[in-house]
């Protein structure tokens, strides 16, 4: 195969598609993996890529969504084809028949799903070759490349905790292979958290059951992981100035602003201050807030489309740590990690605990790593160290690993080419990827 | 007699049963509250609020076809065109996207030998401590009381009133 063909790296997540070219540091486009239909429109539209001016203008109020993925797995290849062809022709501007593809796939994908994915890649888009990677090994690859002398590279193993849109996986990786017999999964991810927050707000203040995108924004801006739940519950119960957690979110009115926003951004971060020492500061804050309040009073009375959040801010991400509170019969993240490690060879246990890597969008909640360490420490034997690393950009970690792999010299030889696919079929080609 | 039996067998097997695993558990339990809880958990994975895809497979009029042969033949002829549409509908249903749980059911992962890791074996399993914290469904603080009618939680008299007025028995029908 000629070396001039470019490699397209595609991290096809349930929530976001990260797409770009092998060898580059950042993906060229991050795109919601869905079609949406705003109230005013009769057609399903393609969402604009994130971080572009066009996406800031898009009015997503009450838009309904169609996603090609359900519970993290591809269920609607037709829809995925539509989204991909939009991505390839109008965003990346590539010619698939002259490029090869590195695609990520969730662990334990079903044979029927793999088959339809292969069909999509080779028969609908005519890529010259395909490599299917699993995300934990890519994260491991990226992290080892960042610290060539660290423990990670010496021991060649790590425990990747990927807390994404559809589910959460704790996967041990050893010498760039994911130990799939030891992987443990919690069926909770960002999507379920958003829906849970939607449910809470809808019952307690405003009906937002149709506002997927707005509540996503609320979750990203206001939710945090509590390190001390009873203390935060107490603070949330207080009234007036004492309540450091109360925060107001303004819903879009469709006239002056089409995006919702946090009313007092400084109010949102007050929980970071510890109750006692920040007393004076709080008073200062309150004065400022009071003034702002006066200024905004008229606005508040006119537009009633805002709501307050208090304990919802930390009780929503809390569910990843204790799914049982939601009524799920599943263990929380700390237990999940311990079970994943215990399923490995005992020689690996100390190294795995010392090289836990957090990735995925749902780990972006403030204090996620802190809380995890606090809960994990008592479960781990005393003589083992626990070290949790958060990726510098958890959304892109998998993609960067893929980009690295795509630019490695052996990449061409690892791929399955179109000719091989046509001769051997999907199932035989899949054996090459060892997972 | 025998023919009847074989007929009923055929009818049973020809009907595709597509039931999500959680729903199987829910249906197996006689308890309304468990059913409601499982349905709510399932709803957390929905893309849009409310009921999304109406099931295209609800088609029960095959059941009355073989009462007596004559009537059956006549009806079959008179309904010639309708048959076609039904087939078309079935084709359409096959094309329509299926949920992951249906695909999972079709993959028949239970038949794999026990040492092969699969989707089911990767699930983390039940929590090690059964202690569950309860939060008030009305205000979110820790709830010490359970509604005697529907089993939802609340923390105080005030919240109980709100609960009774707005959502008591809403999920447990």
UniProtKB/TrEMBL annotation, chain A:
One GO BP annotation of this record? response to osmotic stress
Gene Ontology cellular component terms for the protein in this record: Swr1 complex
Origin: domain of life: Eukaryota
Q: What SUPFAM superfamilies does the record point to?
A: Actin-like ATPase domain
**Protein family (similarity comment):** Belongs to the actin family. ARP6 subfamily.
Which PANTHER family does the record match to this protein? ACTIN
What's the protein name?
Actin-related protein 6
Source organism per entry reads Pisum sativum (Garden pea)
TrEMBL record, chain B:
Alphabetical GO CC annotations of the entry are: nucleus
Bias class Low complexity marks the residues at 1-11
Which top-level group of life is the source organism from?
Eukaryota
* Keywords, alphabetical: Metal-binding, Zinc, Zinc-finger
Keyword hit for Oxidoreductase: no
Mark out the compositionally biased spans (Basic residues): 76-87
Where is the stretch described as Disordered? 1-32, 46-90
Amino acid composition bias (Acidic residues), ranges on this chain: 57-70
Respond yes or no to whether keyword Hydrolase is given for this record.
no
GO MF terms held by the record: zinc ion binding
What is one Gene Ontology biological process annotated in the Swiss-Prot or TrEMBL record? chromatin remodeling
What name goes with this protein? SWR1 complex subunit 6
Native species of this protein? Answer: Pisum sativum (Garden pea)
């Amino acid at each position: 195969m000629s070396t001039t063909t470019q490699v397209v790296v595609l991290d096809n997540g349930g929530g976001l598609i990260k797409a770009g070219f092998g060898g580059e540091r950042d993906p060229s486009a991050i795109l919601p993996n869905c079609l949406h239909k705003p109230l005013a429109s009769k057609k399903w539209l393609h969402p604009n890529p994130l971080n572009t001016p066009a996406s800031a203008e898009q009015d997503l109020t009450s838009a309904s969504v169609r996603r090609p993925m359900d519970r993290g797995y591809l269920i609607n290849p037709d829809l995925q084809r539509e989204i991909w062809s939009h991505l390839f022709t109008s965003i990346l501007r590539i010619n698939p028949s002259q490029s090869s593809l590195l695609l990520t796939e969730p662990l334990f994908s079903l044979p029927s799903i793999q088959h339809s994915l292969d069909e999509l890649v080779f028969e609908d888009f005519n890529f010259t070759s395909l490599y299917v990677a699993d995300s934990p090994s890519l994260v491991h690859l990226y992290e080892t490349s960042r610290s060539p002398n660290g423990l990670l590279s010496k021991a060649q193993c790590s425990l990747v905790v990927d807390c994404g849109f559809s589910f959460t996986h704790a996967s041990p990786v050893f010498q760039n292979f994911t130990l799939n017999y030891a992987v443990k999964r919690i069926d909770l991810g960002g999507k379920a958290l958003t829906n849970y927050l939607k449910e809470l707000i809808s019952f307690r203040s405003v009906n937002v059951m149709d506002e997927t995108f707005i509540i996503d924004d609320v979750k990203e801006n206001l939710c945090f992981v509590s390190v001390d739940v009873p203390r935060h519950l107490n603070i949330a119960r207080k009234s007036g100035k004492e309540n450091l957690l109360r925060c107001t979110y303004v819903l879009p009115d469709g006239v002056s602003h089409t995006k919702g926003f946090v009313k007092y951004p400084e109010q949102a971060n007050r929980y970071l201050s510890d109750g006692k020492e920040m007393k004076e500061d709080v008073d200062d804050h309150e004065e400022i807030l009071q003034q702002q309040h006066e200024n905004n009073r008229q606005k508040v009375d006119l537009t009633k489309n805002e709501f307050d959040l208090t304990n919802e801010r930390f009780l929503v991400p809390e569910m990843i740590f204790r799914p049982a509170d939601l009524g799920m019969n599943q263990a929380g993240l700390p237990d999940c990690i311990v079970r994943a490690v215990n399923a490995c060879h005992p020689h690996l246990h100390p190294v795995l605990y010392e090289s836990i890597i957090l990735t995925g969008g749902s780990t972006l909640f403030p204090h996620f790593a802190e809380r995890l360490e606090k809960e994990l420490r008592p479960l781990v034997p005393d003589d083992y160290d626990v070290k949790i690393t958060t990726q510098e950009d958890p959304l892109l970690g998998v993609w960067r690993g893929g980009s690295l792999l795509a630019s490695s010299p052996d990449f061409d030889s690892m791929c399955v080419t179109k000719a091989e696919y046509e001769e051997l079929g999907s199932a035989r080609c899949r054996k090459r990827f060892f997972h | 007699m025998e023919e009847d039996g074989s007929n009923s067998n055929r009818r049973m097997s020809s009907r595709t049963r597509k039931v999500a695993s959680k729903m199987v558990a829910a249906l197996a339990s006689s308890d309304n509250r468990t059913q409601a809880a499982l349905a709510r958990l399932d709803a957390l994975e929905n893309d849009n609020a409310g009921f999304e895809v109406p099931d295209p497979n609800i088609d029960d009029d095959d059941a009355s076809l073989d009462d007596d042969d004559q009537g059956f033949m006549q009806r079959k002829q008179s309904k010639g065109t309708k048959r076609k549409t039904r087939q078309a509908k079935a084709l359409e249903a096959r094309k329509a996207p299926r949920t992951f749980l249906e695909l999972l059911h079709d993959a028949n992962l239970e038949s794999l030998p026990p040492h092969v890791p699969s989707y089911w074996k990767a699930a983390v399993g039940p929590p090690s401590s059964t202690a569950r914290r309860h939060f008030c469904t009305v205000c979110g603080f820790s709830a010490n009381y359970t509604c005697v009618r529907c089993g939802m939680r609340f923390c105080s008299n005030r919240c109980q009133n709100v609960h009774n007025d707005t959502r008591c028995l809403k999920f447990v029908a």
